[in-house]
Amino acid sequence: MGLADMFRCGGFDIPVGPAADLAEIEYLSALHQTGENPIRSDGTISSEDIRIYLRSRYGLDIPLEECRDIVRGLGGTAKTTGDNDGGKVHVAFPTPEPDASVIMALAQSSPRSVTSDHANTIDDNEYLDLIQFVSILLIPSLQRAKRQIDIDNGIIKIEPIPDLPDTNWRLAFQHPKMYRRNKRLASRLTQQKKEREHGNSLDPSDEDGNIISMVLRVLLDAIDVSAVDTRSYANNNLPRVMVNKHTVERLLDAFGFGDLKSDDILVSQMVQAAGGPGTTLDETTFARALTCDVDVRPVAIEDDACETIEDVYGYGVTSLEYVVGRRINRRRQDKAEQSAECRQGHKTLAGFDEEEGVTPFTPTSSVSTPPSPSVSAANVSPNAQEESVASADGADDGEWVSFDAGDNSTVDWSKAKGEINVSTSGGIEVSTPPPRQDTRASLLNVDEQSTVQAGAGDEGDGVLVETKKPTHIPTAPFIDYVLDEYKSIAYLCGTWVFYLLGAAGSMALIGLVDIQVVQCSGGFLCNLVQQVWSWLAFGLMLSLGGFLVVTPLSLGNDPHRKDLCGVIISVVWAVSFGTLPYSLLKSYAEGIPHSPDGVLTEIETLLSQPYFKLMAVLFFVFGLLLALKMLLEIPMLCIPESVAKKSPVLSYLFIPSSKRSAAATKQAATRKINRMIGQARTMHFKTQLGAPVSALDQYFLCGQTSQSSGGLFWTWKEIFSGRLVNTHGVWLHSNLLIGQEGQVIVLSFGLALGIWGGIQLGESLAKQREALEQEPPSYLRDQSLYFTPYPWNVYVSFGVGLAIAGIIGASLLALYIPSTVATVMKLRTGVISTFRSPTKFGVYRTAADTICYNAGNMVYAVIGSTSLFFLLGAGAVFLLVWKPTQDFFINLIGWGLGLGITIGLKFILTKCTRANFQEALYRKKPRSANFTGLCLMCWNIGLGAGCLLGRLTQFLLAAAFWLGRVDAVFLDEEVNLFGYGFDYVPINFRKDILVTEAHRHPWLDRIGGMYLMRHHYGSAFGTNAGARWRQLFCAALMPWLKKYRSLRNLQLVLEEKDVGSQETLAATGTFAGLGHEEMIQLSVFRQRRRAAAQENDRKGEFMGSF
Questions:
Q1: Which among 58, 65, 70 is positioned nearest to 84, based on CA atoms?
Q2: Integer Cα distance of 515 and 859 in angstroms
Q3: Within 10 A of 174 (CB to CB), how many other CB atoms are there?
């Protein structure tokens, strides 16, 4: 082992690359699913999954039908005409060609085939497959990439930040007023420069060209467009391809969406999303198609230092519990106006205060923006969209007719017979290169709850979107240890230290009180009833104490409360519970002993002990500290967050800890997505001769590598640098922190108690030996002195034992957080299988409420482990120094050392013979190897005791150490008796990690924001056309995701068939029209279904046979 390996301290090689990213996406699907075990093997996310996620994560009670709208709107399966037939899934298939597959032919004859009112698609309207899931996840990154294209093309102009003004110290004496003004301006400019650099660092890397341009090249290459020879996809030298129905159909067919090309409405909408028929499919057009339906969402809003839900609504949803509706409505209105300004390109990227003499910067567009009248989506006729193709195809290649990028003029496509008629106030501009037509409004599926309007004038500029108000349910966020929402993590830890100290002292006193529920006469049943009652009373007192202490103390730590009520309650409770018990105990202890004869009672003896006095003092001190910390939170109620964010010091002091961590998690989501995009684009390249290399071939050849990660020092370094949250997105849950502080308390008190106990025992032995020595000489006296240890025997043994226990305890404390981080990384990268082991993962998904046991388990685990090591260490040293056992123990040590040296010599001899006679699993010299093996076999019969001693020692020490590790599995899953696995405590710890990941994983947080956007803005956010363009983007960039769409389609096909047809298909073994890759996927699908059916009969007989 090298020096580098030694300093890794538990590190491991973590998979990296597209395969690891795919494993993390599968992991997210496993986390997101909420149905019964086993999880769906095709990775789909249902509308019910989304409903439960939003309810648990944000406390939003969203009806199932609205969640279905989220699935359809973001997945691209929203109905264009007709209704959803009561929520039933409609599946249809295109008319098969003469050589069409058996699957398609049978599906076409299905009794549930689609009617003319529904889209001709095999997509499921109730589920999101993984390619749809990833396409939603990429929306913010695509918006950033489009903004970069607009900047490169001059559509958005970013003014440079001015140079810093003169702040020389001489200016402070010559012109004090100018010096103060320059200092303020320099501070603002410096802060704005840092913010711009930070924002640029979160943009997708464009070192090898914009990602949209690269994917567009992949799309065009896939439809056999002759491209200019190039060695990479970095340049923008793309072939000239016109946007029309034929181009879109070819793209859909080339990337596994062939079932959609027969949907004329969808194809027409996709053409309009790209700028209309006849537009050149370049990077600007493609970027517009990818983002035109989601431009209600401001670009890079995820960079704001706030919760994801505030990016959507402008305020925290849990504020609905405390803030009046009028204030909320005003905030929502401000948010809508801000979003409208951003969509029209008026968001300031580098604005300065005019008062300081610097003109605020406004990004400008290269095209004019005329006033815009109202937009009516109902004026758009799908059939007229097809007619517009012929009129646009004949346009001159050098001129383009379109609307300005900010124009929302009403377009009546039903009149588009060779020309475009625009309402009176609309504007038409002819320019090269062309500004793209704003067709988002024409693609919206407008309903009665979400409409799009445009107004003119100073106050009506932009698009005003009517939004939905969320329905919030009470969540008690101040004691939410799943979401971990709190103002101060220090206050949270202090609250639980205060409670643990109080609970320990109270239980110590109550344990001395004989509380009898029945009068026992010494019988077994009577004693059993008494013990059950004692333990129940013990649990009830702890629960009641936690409710009466932790809940009021936590009210002031609620990050969403903006009033003094919670703070005052917490302060009063901390002072009361910290002062009154301490005062009563102190006044009672001053009069000890209270009995006339001077005999101490058990309670008086306990109160006189130094460790109990120390515990009482600490309890009193922590109560005052909690009250003081909560009083310091009062200025936070007076200082707005907008002011606190301007200063790093104020931000740290007055912005809640959970909100800072949530903002860092959003940054981690952006960085992780950028890394996933960068790793996926490395799978697309051309050889030196320009020959393309299949991305799938490249993925299977080198889609996964490994790098060193994790470990003790690595983890703590990432924690202190902040990268653990803002780069890796690992959220350390509060149950872990509470358990760790409990471990610190018991370890500290245990060591102090051990030192005090050793001193007391040594002094007692010294008095006992002194009394024996004063007695007359006799045989009994001599034997008593011989067996009575010397005080130094106790001091040495206790010292060594406490040192070993302290080292073990400190090691356990230091390993819990690195172990948790390593487990998270292994879960995300597939090292610990989840999605691909549905049976094993089902164990973790069951009884997730057991995570509340982990804090107590962690505390008692450390007590048990350190106590065992103390007994082993102190006991071994005591046997070595105690006279009656000293000779035997010395002989035992000599026997063990002699045996160990002999085994070492045998090992050296075996290694020498192995080098000469063995080669891997084969013998180079069979005869010599046989003789050597015979000799070693016979020799080992005598040395087998070494194996016994070695295994016994290792097992005892390992068991003693891993007894304190509830975070790691010690017994293998194969170690069981009649199915019982003995140790389920580590499973509960992993459940805690998975519950935290299900609520705080950066990508789930990101996609949760997309769910809320769709729910908030309705059909103004997300259309079928935009969703399909993004899915094409994902399929081109990451073609390995297409298999999950194929698996979902296969499952839908099977669900459409009757039992007789299914048995026929299962008996044939092959399906016409399926390629080699699809057959492999089908085989995997069969195996998973068969395993699921064998485990759970609810899957049915057919699915088991398939």
A1: 65
A2: 27
A3: 9
